[in-house]
Amino acid sequence: MKLADQIRDKAGAVWHFGRVRRLVRSEAGLAPQVLVSVAEIPCEDPACAGPATQITILGMDLTRRVMVIHRPAAEVVTTDIVAALRVAPGP
Q: At residue 21, what are phi and psi to the nearest 5 degrees?
C-alpha cells in the first residue's frame, strides 16, 4: 500500500470519528465540556463482519458511559446512536 493510500484511509477514519462524535453530542444533548471519544475496536460478535465502534462519554462528574455499535464508524448512523444511548442511559 502506498503512503498516499495510508494517509487517505487515516484521514477518512478521522473524519468519520468526528462525524460520530458530533452525532453523539447532538443526540445526547451534551455540554461542550463533556468528553466524547470514538474508536474502532475488534468486534467480538461472530455475526459482526468488521470492526465495532466504541463510543465513550466522560461527564464532568467523571461518570463514564461506554457504548459499542457493531459496525465500523463509517457505517454508523443516527439511529444506531439513538439506540445505543437508550441502552446505556446517562446519570
A: -60, -45
pTM comes to 0.87
Contact 57, 34 (CB under 8 A): yes
> Domains, the chain, ranges and CATH?
3-87 (3.30.160)
Give residue-wise pLDDT tens across range 44-58: 778 888 899 999 999
**Cβ atoms of residues 62 and 34 within 8 Å:** no
Report how far apart, in Å, the C-alpha atoms of 45 and of each of 14, 25, 49, 52 are: 24, 27, 9, 9
Alpha helices in 1-91 (DSSP H): 3-28, 78-87
